[in-house]
Amino acid sequence: MMRYLASRLAGMLLVLAIVAVLVFVLTRAASGDPISVLLGDQATAADIARVQTQYGLDRPLPVQFLYWLKELAQGNLGDSIFLQRPVLQALAERAEPTALLSLLAVAIATVIGVPCGIVGAVFRGRVIDQVFTSLAMLGASIPSFWLGLVLMQLFAVSLGWFPVSGYGDPGATLADRLHYLVLPATVLGLLNSALIIRFTRASMLDVLGEDYVRTARAKGLGEWPVVLKHALRNALVPIVTVIGLTVALMIGGAVVTETVFGLPGVGSLVVNAVLRRDYPVIQGALLVIAAIYVVINFCVDLLYMVVDPRVKY
């Protein structure tokens, strides 16, 4: 077990190192200069050179990269050029909307995806299975911004059940915050439930054909006790995998959804940073998202041992 943990930790560090290199190179390769955006069109060459020196952007790229790695080793993601505060502080200020949105969306996707996948597998080839399969294909094809605009028009503008956009006043309660998040979380949950439906259905179909399931039926057990107690328990590993993957995908999908619904989360922070060429924010946010992704995958691997005692590391 310790050998496995050490190897996984080394793999996680290697992935983050590769992500750090790619993020740094891609941000510098993009057209535009943050200093020119910061100072505006009226800035002189002397002003631009002075501010570039202030932020270390006049140094050679390898030197900038090594300096950034040194700061990362000390737990510092750098300072935002436009926000004039540490990137960690900016991310912490925007973390709550994104975290609540992702958790609520995962809950919605799981509540929809797992039961629909189970029912589709049990009634394979019937009308209800075809309906759920079609809905899964439809959910995988619909753009999130389009679905967000449709739900906004229907439930916020026409019916007035939910706010159109925003995250409430600074002193709003958690219940008020969740009220603002219902529509964006529904968008992410509906779209990502498609993947869970497909994986749950496929995993259940594999298990329902096993000998021990037929034996349980032959002993006189009801269909749903057999499905839920025997089949589902042995089909959980792929289902847990796809749910963990969905959690990670929610963070990336939140970028578009937060923009559509005007949520002050990490997604909108990254979008604004890209538009402004705010290198430290882009690098720090993407590295943190990558770290969350690999940590979630690691936790899912450990969860396998809880779900299925036969799994050993």
Highlighted features:
single chain, 313 residues, mainly alpha, globular
What percent of residues are in strands?
A: under 5%
Order of helices and strands: HHHHHHHHHHHHH
Helix/strand/pairing class, anyone? mainly alpha
Distance between the termini: 6 Å
Counting DSSP H or I runs of 4 or more residues, the number of helices is 13
* Average predicted confidence as pLDDT: 82
As a whole number of angstroms, the C-alpha radius of gyration is 24 Å
DSSP summary, beta strand count: 0
Q: Report helical residue fraction.
A: over 70%
Shape: globular
Sheet with most strands: none
Which runs of at least 5 residues are low in confidence (pLDDT < 50)? none
